[in-house]
Amino acid sequence: MTQRDFPFYPGxxxxxSGLQWLVVLLSCGLGFLALIGAPRxxxxxxxxxxxxxxxxxxxxxxxxxxxxxxxxxxxxxxxARDVWIGLAFVPVNLVVTVxxxxxxxxxxxxxxNPVMAQISxxxxxxxxxxxxxxxxxxxxxxxxxxxPFLAILALCTGALxxxxxxxxxxxxxxxxxxxxxxxxxxxxxxxxxxLGVIGVARLVLTAPFILTKSVWSSTIAHVTNDWLLFGGFAxxxxxxxxxx
Length: 244
Prior knowledge:
Helix content is 76%, strand content 0%. The mean pLDDT is 91. It has helices spanning 18-41, 44-67, 80-107, 114-119, 124-157, 164-182, 191-212, 215-243. It is mostly helical.
């Protein structure tokens, strides 16, 4: 099997220009706006589903527009290695998330994630539909992290002439901070919680992509991590209600 490299890397086939990267990054922003805006324009579950699909779909559409069929390089053929590396980082992320959350809680007032309150009231079909809807949304979260990662990597190794290892580290950190910043509205604009907890967790979730060069791997890690958290919280809420 041909050894993988980061897609759209400068000096490689299918490298993107600065203007093309700008189009892709703008589509990431539009996708995020669609995620939060669609539920306000379309009532009920329809708005939530439309927002989730646009969140993932708009960046992919833009990438297809500027890269043609090469957009598939973001999703190479899934291998067993992609799967086990993604799954291996799930317990790592859970431990890191808990430790950083405890640390932040000792130094700052934190805000609860409103999604958890919603999950506590879900059962059966409602919970299953919620988890299903998270699939396109979590893919969207991967895209709005990995595409900026690749754009920063291209900028550093191309125009800025930065060494590859340094460029990867910079892209890894900045894309994680961006991901954390997107969660500011969720956590009442608590900067320390969004960047210190979510941002650090994102560093762990991006690691499978860096190792495998496949969005499949980081998506597997992200979906498994969040489903375990959501499922565990729903189970605890059910047990608590039954015990009460």
